[in-house]
Amino acid sequence: MPVANRPTRRTATPAAPSAVRRTAPVAACLAVLLAATAGCAPQDDSSSGSSNSSAAPPAAAACTKGKLATQVPGKLTVGTDKPAYAPWFEGDDPANGKGFESAVAYALAERLGYDRADVAWRTVPFNTAVAPGAKKFDVDLNQVSVSDERRRAVDFSSGYYDVRQAVIALKDSPAAKAGNVADLKHVKLGAQVGTTSLDVVNDVIKPGERPAVFQKNDYAKTALKNGQVEAIVVDLPTAFYITSAEIQEARIVGQFEAGGGKPEQFGLVLDKGSRLTSCVSGAVDSLRKDGTLARLEKKWLSEAADAPVLK
After folding, report:
1. Which residues pair with 191 in a beta bridge?
2. Gap between the Cα atoms of 52 and 278, Å rounded
3. What contacts 187, CB < 8 A, 6 or more positions away?
4. What is the pLDDT of residues 170-198, one digit of tens each?
5. Which domain holds residue 75?
6. 116: in domain
7. Are residues 93 and 202 in the same domain?
8. 144-161 core/surface letters (b: 16 or more CB in 10 A; e: else)
9. What is the pTM of this model?
10. Do residues 21 and 132 touch, judged by C-beta distance below 8 A?
């Protein structure tokens, strides 16, 4: 299954030096961008808001396969956890290009000048990806929500997906009848450790009983089926997948609004102070601007229109 909006989803560490700054004029950058279809314009805060650096964006020529300082020259190493769940990946095989995040990874690679054969996948546990310390990947896609806390340990690209959290309960459970947040306060809830799903449980629902915390969403699903918890919180696309393909006797109780009016976003994780951050953000911005991300989202992720909003 897909991992619920992955673990905040730690211990702060001193900020490392910022990414290498470039001074190419913005006009020249934009001109090269149009010719090379690589994103180099400054981040649009209204669409992503996840940039780690205030430096001027690098020239598009610096954001190409031959110029990027990747782990392995000429290769783009992409990390994600295992199992790799649908709808983010399919068949537990990130390299097949199927599933939203697999498709985004290859679209990003192409925008940076890497062929499909140039993309190398590496298994990276979620908590390892967002923990302080040197990384064994160039970028990591693992349903990682961008947060100020995590930015102390890692860099993030611009957001590639706006996500909401949702509650799942068995159809015959009293929890399935909850119509608002207050109705969930006396429900035995569960969520994956270190995730924004767990943050929603603790900070939004604020249940009277301490929630169950699981290392993996697989364990949370098993607990739900066995009646050890009455409901679990996961990201909305994961909720659609669970209820349609894995636990058909469960239903989505509802989804939560974005806190503070600002959408929760998934971003690619990079090493703190990575020289790739600006280029990767530029590529993500260009994929958003030309509609690529929207097309991939429509193809691989379920629509959220049918899930009621819990207030």
Report:
1. 213
2. 8
3. 169, 174, 175, 178, 207, 230, 231
4. 999 999 999 999 999 999 999 999 899 99
5. 26-162+265-310
6. yes
7. no
8. bbbbeebbbbbbbbbbbb
9. 0.77
10. no
